[in-house]
Amino acid sequence: MYKYDYVIVGAGLFGATFAHLAHKHGKRCIVIDKRSHSGGNIYCENIEGINVHKYGAHIFHTSDKAVWDFVNSIVPFNRYTNSPIAMAPNGQLYNMPFNMNTFYQMWGVKTPSEAKAKLESQRKEAIAKMAIEGITKPRNLEEQALTLIGKDIYEQLIKGYTEKQWGRKCNELPAFIIRRLPVRMTFDNNYFNDAYQGIPIGGYNKLIDGLLDGIEIKLNTNFFDNRKYWESIADKIVFTGKIDEFYDYRFGKLEYRTVRFEISKYYTPNFQGNAVINYTSADIPFTRTIEHKHFETFGDAVYDNPWTVVSKEFSTEWHEGMEPFYPVNDKRNQETYEKYHRLAEKELNTIFGGRLAEYKYYDMAPIISQVLNYFQ
Ligand code: UDP
User: Is 179 a catalytic residue?
Assistant: First the structure.
């Protein structure tokens, strides 16, 4: 008889949710994490009373009521709605995602039919250009963007941002990345189409601490330093780390993107007037600036705290010793991942989950949903 039913490797959202539900089902769990804190990349650090998203902005959004009810049963969420502003190469500010406000700012069009006509003419141009080369279906992000939204928006709001974020040319990136972004014919600046959206009241650490309440956890503990031991004490391993590392990189290393942050504290209550500003010009080295207090304070409450904290995000290639954030789902990496995945499918005693173990650009809600389904 093993000491534990599950050794859960990684105290991020997948690991913490898994531990929570397994514990509720009477399973014996231990969570280990190599970092000095739990929460993975949703961990926040409190600076001057502000929850700073240490590993990049996280905004919870879902249309799945079961997921929303579940996270709210751990900690109530606020009504934050993400509405980023983009600073474009032409020096203008635009509303995101692409909606009637953006089209008005870009072209002066005032009605959905005017906007549709403008978009249609730009899309037709792109489709015609591709047709000359015999291309009928967008093969990459650039072609996808041009046929979806046209040249003006692609050049002002997509190209520079995407190439900075991924460190690769738009014509070398998969089309699906851009399909995450809505295109709307209404004056609606809500970045997400989902029914529910918000931030845990009191910050993400409340969510993680709530999920891990009553569960044994060992921090500063690297699974790979003592792999045999961890495998010997549990019936099953729940692995949320990098799948290529799990298999000792036998098919080669997978690539990841990460973000370097420059965090500044200012003695001013309202620095940029919005939580998220995207810098879509290739000439500005950072992709976004985040003013963290706007995630949790609204209206004049922003002025209650004389301080603010702003982080600049510099997207960079991942190297050993950094925290990997985004899988690079280009063709080459995807093919390498498939090889690891075929091995993973054969594992009887290991469950793989989360962005790193599944090498997938997951949002938070699908992670919760996946774990809820597992225990149903
Ligand atoms: N994107 C863009 N311009 C923007 C914001 C996003 O072109 O101002 C593109 C970019 O390619 C990015 C993708 O949309 O990789 C998805 O953006 P999202 O905001 O969903 O990325 P995340 O929040 O996960 O970093």
Answer: no
Catalytic (active site) residue 114 = no
Catalytic residue among 313, 337, 340, 358: 313
| Angle at 67 (CA atoms; ends 65, 73), nearest 5 degrees | 100
| Distances 199 to 60, 93, 156, 206, 336 between C-alpha atoms, Å | 6, 25, 30, 11, 35
Q: Write down the pTM of the prediction.
A: 0.94
Q: Tell me which of 15-24, 35-44, 173-182, 296-305 is least confident.
A: 173-182
Domain ranges, ordered by start, for the chain: 4-78+197-250+328-375, 99-178
pLDDT in tens, 313-334: 999 999 988 999 999 878 899 9
Whole-Å CA distances, 42 to 38, 67, 164, 266: 9, 17, 22, 23
Kindly give, in sequence order, each residue whose CB lies less than 8 Å from that of residue 170, ignoring residues fewer than 6 positions away.
140, 141, 142, 145, 158, 159, 162, 163
User: Please, how many CA atoms are within 13 Å of residue 269, restricted to the half-sphere of its CB?
Assistant: 10
Fold classified for 4-78+197-250+328-375: Rossmann fold (3.40.50)
Q: Distance, CA 22 to ligand 1 centroid (Å)?
A: 34
Give residue for tokens 């080459």: 332
The rounded Cα 106 to chain-centroid distance in angstroms is 27
- H/E segment holding residue 45: strand 44-47
The one-letter amino acid code at 117 reads: A
Q: How far apart are CA 206 and CA 202, in angstroms?
A: 6
Sheet holding 256-266, edge to edge: 93-95, 85-87, 276-279, 288-291, 308-317, 256-266, 326-327
Given a cut of 80, whether residue 180 has pLDDT beyond it is no
- Alpha helix (H) residue ranges in 108-218: 112-132, 141-149, 151-153, 159-166, 204-211
* Ligand 1 pocket, residue 169 CB under 6 Å: no
